[in-house]
Design brief:
By secondary structure, the chain is mainly alpha-helical. The chain has helices at about 5-10, 15-35, 45-60, 75-90; strands at about 15, 65. The chain has one domain (about 5-90).
Amino acid sequence: MLSSPVYAYGINLQPAERVAEEVMKLNALLAQVVKETGVTFTLADLDQRFQSLLHQLEADGICQRDVDYLPVVTKELWLQAQLVTIQKLARGEKI
């Protein structure tokens, strides 16, 4: 659930494993930025980046949109979980 944005956005891209992999790649990239620059991302920053990722995966044909779902957690809660992951990765902790 941590790396699957369908739970917060309701956007059901397939294959789901690829979406989760791309979310974790973005988390790792953002963690590197935090580590190198000390920048702090807001939830609005993360929302924009993750929505952009989802749109790009679909636009590039990497993933196909399936029937969407109703979100089961708030977008803010999911984004906070991503922020925690990014902060842990920036500190060199394992996820």
